[in-house]
Specification:
The protein is of the alpha/beta class and 336 residues long. The chain has a domain at 2-74. The chain has helices spanning 71-74, 92-110, 127-134, 147-157, 191-201, 218-223, 241-251, 264-277, 283-293, 296-301, 303-311; strands at 2-4, 8-9, 14-15, 18-20, 32-38, 49-54, 60-62, 65-66, 117-121, 139-144, 161-163, 176-182, 202-211, 237-238, 253-259, 319-324. Helix 5 packs across helix 7 (241-251) and helix 8 (264-277) packs antiparallel against helix 9 (283-293). The radius of gyration is 19 Å and the shape is globular.
Length: 336
């Protein structure tokens, strides 16, 4: 079912969104309870967007949500994830900061796998693929639905990036050694189908490595409706550890390790920024506070909190390392 939301206005452009009602992606039921209603605190698209919780399996998902023909409208070209390559940062400090996070991702992969073929789903402008190719020596491929971001990756970085969704590609079965998704699973319209497709594309000893906001995190408890994990209307799903494990199991994967690699500081400060944007304060004061949030001094002050939450695997975006299991041998269940 598709409905037309009233004309909505953002700071970027005037647009209208088509919204669609969907069933639970995990168990296929359509009985749910309202979980959260929130405005867009990132790009200021007008309207109220709703998360619900499935009555049967507990999955939290956006319903109704933007339909496929509205995807480009909720991801404008200046969306903050469509940033330039880390090597093209004008500031040396910013290059070092971004490079540090990217190198942590490299080390997390190479401790498990020697160089081979890697596919990054939702690769944006390709900064991760660029460093995996140039520093780690991997053969890299990417899929990115944004024409603007994928074109940047191809033309500026020389990367093999396809525009669209994974289901629209023609990669061979058992072709990749590693497939990654960095803060992507929550954006997908049909994550369980994507995970099953990934299962087919990975070699028998291949690995899926990804992160996604953790509904059980300390940040989610602290910030409530302002938590970055509720990044409506762009986050279609918000997984608890239980619902994530169920979805991975049904898709043919088993987690062998969970670690917090990067993103804890950014997630925490982004949640504070969302809170600020909902407060009745002058824009000048709000902008002043926002400029301080990502300062290195504040980052140093909050390091003990991030150290504790990361060690307890209660950070906003822990990274999961998964191996394939045979779907035919699983004990399938109804999620009821």
């Amino acid at each position: 079912m598709v409905l037309r939301q009233n004309k909505v206005f953002s700071k970027i452009t005037t647009m209208s969104l088509d919204l669609e009602f969907v069933k639970c992606n995990l168990c296929g039921r359509d009985k749910f309870d309202n979980y959260l209603t929130r405005k867009d605190l990132n790009l200021s698209i007008q309207g109220d967007f709703q998360l619900v919780r499935c009555r049967y399996c507990g999955l939290v998902y956006q319903n109704p949500r933007p339909a496929q023909n509205s995807i480009n409208e909720i991801y404008p070209d200046n969306y903050d994830q469509f940033i330039k390559s880390a090597t093209e940062e004008s500031s040396i400090i910013n290059r070092m900061d971004r490079g540090y996070g990217l190198n942590k991702r490299i080390k997390s992969i190479t401790r498990y796998k020697k160089p081979g073929r890697l596919l990054d789903i939702g690769c944006a402008t390709g900064d991760f693929l660029e460093i995996m190719r140039d520093i780690a020596g991997w053969g890299v491929y990417g899929v990115e639905p944004s024409p603007h971001a994928s074109n940047y990756a191809r033309t500026h970085l020389g990367l093999q990036v396809k525009t669209g969704f994974l289901g629209e590609t023609d990669y061979e079965a058992e072709y990749f050694d590693v497939i990654t998704m960095w803060n992507v699973l929550e954006h997908l319209p049909d994550p369980i189908s994507t995970l099953k497709h990934i299962h087919k594309l990975l070699k028998p000893d291949g690995m899926l490595i990804f992160n996604t906001p953790n509904l059980d995190s300390l940040d989610a408890r602290i910030f409530g409706p302002y938590w970055i994990g509720f990044e409506l209307p762009r986050h279609f799903f918000v997984f608890s550890r239980r619902t994530l494990l169920l979805m991975l199991h049904d898709s043919g994967f088993r987690i062998i390790e969970t670690r917090s690699i990067y993103g804890s500081h950014s997630a925490f400060m982004s949640s504070i920024r969302f809170w600020l944007r909902d407060q009745p304060i002058s824009p000048n004061i709000r902008n002043l506070f926002e400029s301080l949030l990502f300062s290195r001094i504040l980052r140093a002050i909050t390091l003990p909190y991030f150290f504790i939450s990361d060690k307890l695997n209660l950070s906003t975006t822990p990274t999961d390392f998964c191996i394939k299991i045979d779907p035919e041998s699983q004990d399938h269940r109804s999620c009821i």
